[in-house]
Amino acid sequence: MNYKVGVISGDGIGPEIVNEAKKVLDSVGAKFGHKFEYTEILMGGASIDVHGVPLTDEAIAAAKASDAVLMGSIGGDTTTSPWYQLPPNLRPEAGLLSIRKALNLFANVRPAVLYKELKDACPLKDEVIGDGFDMVIMRELTGGLYFGERKTIEENGVMKAYDSLAYDENEIRRIAIRGFDIAMKRNKKVTSVDKANVLDSSRLWRKVVEEVAKDYPEVTYEHMLVDNCAMQLVKNPRQFDVILTENMFGDILSDEASMVTGSIGMLSSASLNETKFGLYEPSHGSAPDIAGKNIANPIATVLSAAMMLRYSFDLSKEADAIENAVKKVLADGYRTIDIMSEGCTQVGCDKMGDLLCERI
Ligand code: IPM
Ligand code: MG
Hints:
The chain is of the alpha/beta class and 360 residues long. It is built from twelve helices and 14 strands.
């Protein structure tokens, strides 16, 4: 089969890691008889440099015309990059928010897995880690604070800024359904995270999640307040299977969850809508400080490509081949600098890509 893959290489380490992911995809294609056709799409700083805006209508059209989009990372150093002299709606991140909205990518799936080979990189104590953990954050991605009305005004000589957090029941229902669906394929446990002791939007969230839960009698579910969840993630991460939460809480908790695995450079993510289309990207950022040095870890992007094969193209054997190659390369003792430990062999970004290709 031929697949049309839109590619947003983006900024910082984006181009390097995407390059390796394409190499791995091509190896999979050669082995299983598929062809991946790539169309480069500009977004973020890379688009600002060419078009003056972080996302053009043409870029959105190109993404829509693709079967799926693979993305590296966008954004630069917020204190030194000229992109951050621009008004907020013209900065790199605005491109990412616009594409999420334009393609209705409301369901953001972020796995946080502790690889047993990388146990040493986990900052938690052995007795907390136990035999490891494997959770997924299901983050709502097109509503809440990120997309509510905002303004900055001056009142009686005092600056005042507003951001509003709104959800309607349909937005909550569709992400809750996704959360319970994914739980059915995993360990059948959903922890719905909110701040229902303070926020109206969270009280509605809770009510709708409870309604959805009725359709999934096999799934155990609980509600947890977001501050408690932040604590539980470091106290006992093994208790979680699927964390279901709104946009802003999911942004924060997914960084925390990935950090407790000790290997943010290993974690993939998928942003999905109601169709088979998805935008796949690593959970980490553009790391401008190490860009162009050939030391970035491409594995999160490679694993995002595996998620693309699994979710958008229904190619599960092929996705398994990528995931197994990653496990093999780790078992063989190869590490990029971010996950390096004693006795292992340190390799650069491109070498890691080659080693993965050899193991496909
Ligand atoms: C993420 C990022 C984005 C977000 C930024 C870059 C706008 O932090 O994908 O988690 O906040 O959603
Ligand atoms: Mg984030």
